[in-house]
Amino acid sequence: MANKTFQSASDTFADLKAKGILKDGITVMVGGFGLCGIPENLIIALRDSGVKDLTCISNNAGVDDFGLGLLLKTRQIRKMISSYVGENAEFERQYLAGELEVEFNPQGTLAERIRAGGAGIPAFYTATGAGTKVAEGKETRELFRPYDGVGGCTIPGWKVPGKFAPTPRVGATPREYVLETGLYADLSLVKAHKADSFGNLVYRKTARNFNPMMATAAAFVIAEVDQTVGLGELDAESIHTPGSYVDRIVQAKAEKRIEQRTVRK
Amino acid sequence: MPLTRDQITQRAAKELRDGFIVNLGIGMPTLVANYVPPGMDIWLQSENGLLGMGPFPSEAEVDADLINAGKQTITARPGASYFSSAESFQMIRGGHVDLTILGAMQVSQEGDLANWMVPGKMVKGMGGAMDLVAGAKKVIVTMEHVAKGDAAKVVKQCSLPLTGKKCVDMLITDLCVMEMDPVKRRFVLTEVAPGTTVDEIKQKTEAEFIIAPNVQTVAV
Question: Which residues are CB-contacts of A143 (< 8 A; sequence separation ≥ 6)?
Fold first, then answer.
C-alpha cells in the first residue's frame, strides 16, 4: 500500500508540485465553516507554495490574517465560490475593486453541489433560489415535491412505467425547481480530527461541516488531522470518510482560532 | 407602544410547539431560544451541522470545534447529533425542520422575502437563508414594521433582490402580527401591539392586506 502519511504540509505540496498536481490556475476546495474545521496548516503551505490564479470553493473566506484570508492577501485567489464572506475586509476591498470574482451559492446548494460532484451526479434540481437572482440564466422546471410524488412520480406528465405505477398525490401542485451543477475540483484540502494510515477519517463536532463532501469531490485529496492512529484503532462503525477517498494525510498542530468567544455568566 | 425587540421575540416564541425542530436566524431570532415555554422540548438546529444546540459554554467548556451558524461558541444538549453541511441542508431542504424564524429587509403582500442584499452595497452572501425559506415547514419573519425614515417594509412588491418567493407564513413586527392566507395570497392582520390602531397599520403598510374580523391586542 502506498504511504499516504507525509511529515509536513510543505513536503506534501513540494511533492505535488513536482508531480504537476499543484499548479497555477487550478480549482481547490477548502473545508471549514468560518474558522471552524479549516485545514489551517495546509492553507499556510498552499500560500507558501506560491501557486496563483486559484479558484477556491469554500463556504467562507476566512478572516484577514487567518484561513483563506492569507491567500487573498497574497492575491493567489482569482475566484471564490462561497455562500457567505462577511468577516474579511481584504476580501471586500478586492471584490469592490473588481480584482476578485465571486460566485455566491446558497449554502445548502453549495453543500449539495459538492456532494453531487463526488457522487458522480452532474446536475440536480433544487427549489432553493427559485425566482431569485440565483436562478438567473439557469434551467428551471416545474416538478412535484418528492412527498407529493410518492414512488418517484415527481415529473408532471411523465408516467412511471409498469403495472403498479404511482400517481402524484391528488390536489398536489408542482413547484418551480432550479437546475444546479455538481462541483468537482483538482484538489481538496480537508480537516479531520483523526486518521489512520489508510486515510479513514473521523471528524470532531461541528468541525465536520463541508469536509466530508469535499473529501469525495476532487482528483486529489489531502487531509490535515489533529491525530494519527494505527490501522484498526478507529472503530469501523464510526468512520465518517472511508480511507479510499484520501490521498495524503498530514498531522499538524492546529491553533484552532475562535471567531466569537461567547460564554455564559 | 410598539413592541420592544424582546417582546417581538416573546410573541414569536408562542409559535413554538413541543418537539419542534427549529432553526433560528442570526440576530433577533436567536433570542427566541430564551423564551421557550417551561416544560416544552425544542430541538434547535444549527445549519453548520448540529441538532440539539445548548446554551453558551462556561469558560471551561469553550471548544473551538463547537460553534453555531453565527460562529459563536456554544454547547450541545443531551441527545444532540453532529453531521455534515450536506446532511444539515438535506434536513432543511427536505422539509424536516418545523419552523424557521428570520429577519427581513422587505416582505411583499404575497409573502416574498428580501433579506440578503442591497444593490450597490457590499454583498456578503445569502448563507443558508435561501435554503431555509425554501425548505422549512413554517417561515416566520420578525422585524421592525417600517425602515428608518418610515419607509414601508411590508410592500406590494419587493424592490430588493429576493431570498425566496411566496415563502413567508407569518410576520411579527413591533406593531402587529400578520398571517398569510394561502388561498387569497394576502396577509391577514390578526393582532396589533398595545396602543396601536388598525388605521396606524394601514398607514404604515404599503402591501394590500386583509383585516381579521376580531383583531386582538398582542399579549406580552
Answer: A125, A149, A154, A155, A156, A174, A175, A177
